[in-house]
């Protein structure tokens, strides 16, 4: 996991054993039309009220790219690749300053808050990262096995915004077993459907699978960046049981998730 998710700088505001229908993997991440896949997972309204309080940062921003794929889809690989392109990258962002300082932001809270971030950053580009369920589900189960004690609403040591993102997207603290295979499949399905439908008819969403040949070149072209012949594919990072690659990767362009700025460590004034 990235960049000290254990540091809280804000006050705290079954078992199924079957795979998803192959129809989910055939869902086209195409921003030109909505999709009709029934979202079986727990809906956000069942977790938290949808009260959004808007503010504008348009005057301060330069164009950004916001990655809204779920954890364990390749966010570390994307982040490292963009660091090597000279961009400032935040892999998780828990303060307004982290968002403002970074050119690219991924992971929490982007995957849960993409609708609110789209309103705050109307000129931003968005990238949905997808992954085959056969590999994503066990990877996510492994991640949750390590994270769940620290995501507890009262005793967990992870940042409140991270807790909120996992509560919203995976029902952590709401459902009996967030690691349940079918529950995770449903969460993935609901999230992907929401992303594709929300961006339907727009041209500021790109969908990529970092394991596919040419995915990096496709991303760089979407961002208006040149790619050499050797910059077409993503490096393979954060695989297996290693979930600390971002912390271990040293680069001067890394932006801390807890970066401080004019508003110190305040976050944006919205709720989901």
Automatic annotation (TrEMBL):
GO MF, one annotated term: hydrolase activity
Q: What's the protein called, per UniProt?
A: P-loop containing nucleotide triphosphate hydrolase
Q: Which InterPro entries match?
A: P-loop_NTPase, Sulfotransfer_4
Q: Cite a single Pfam family from the UniProt record.
A: Sulfotransfer_4
Judging by the UniProt lineage, the source's domain of life is Bacteria
Specify the species.
Shewanella oneidensis (strain ATCC 700550 / JCM 31522 / CIP 106686 / LMG 19005 / NCIMB 14063 / MR-1)
- Keywords attached to this entry: Hydrolase
């Amino acid at each position: 996991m990235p960049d000290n998710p254990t540091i809280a700088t804000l006050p705290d505001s079954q078992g199924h054993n079957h795979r998803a229908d192959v129809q989910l993997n055939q869902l086209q991440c195409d921003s030109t039309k909505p999709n009709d896949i029934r979202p079986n997972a727990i809906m956000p309204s069942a977790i938290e009220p949808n009260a959004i309080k808007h503010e504008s940062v348009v005057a301060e921003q330069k164009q950004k790219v916001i990655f809204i794929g779920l954890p364990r889809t390749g966010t570390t690989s994307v982040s490292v690749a963009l660091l090597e392109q000279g961009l400032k990258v935040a892999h998780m962002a828990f303060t307004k300053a982290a968002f403002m300082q970074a050119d690219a932001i991924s992971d929490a809270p982007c995957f849960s808050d993409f609708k609110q971030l789209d309103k705050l950053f109307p000129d931003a580009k968005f990238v949905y990262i997808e992954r085959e369920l056969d590999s994503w589900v066990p990877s996510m189960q492994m991640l949750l096995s390590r994270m769940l004690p620290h995501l507890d609403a009262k005793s967990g040591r992870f940042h409140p915004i991270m807790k909120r993102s996992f509560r919203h997207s995976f029902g952590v603290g709401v459902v009996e077993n967030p690691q349940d295979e079918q529950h995770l499949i449903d969460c993935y399905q609901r999230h992907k459907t929401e992303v594709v439908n929300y961006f339907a008819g727009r041209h500021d969403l790109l969908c990529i699978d970092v394991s596919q040949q040419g995915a990096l070149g496709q991303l760089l072209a979407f961002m208006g960046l040149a790619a050499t012949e050797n910059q077409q594919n993503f490096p393979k990072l954060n695989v297996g049981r290693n979930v600390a690659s971002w912390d271990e990767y040293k680069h001067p362009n890394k932006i801390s998730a807890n970066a401080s700025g004019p508003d110190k460590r305040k976050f944006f004034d919205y709720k989901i």
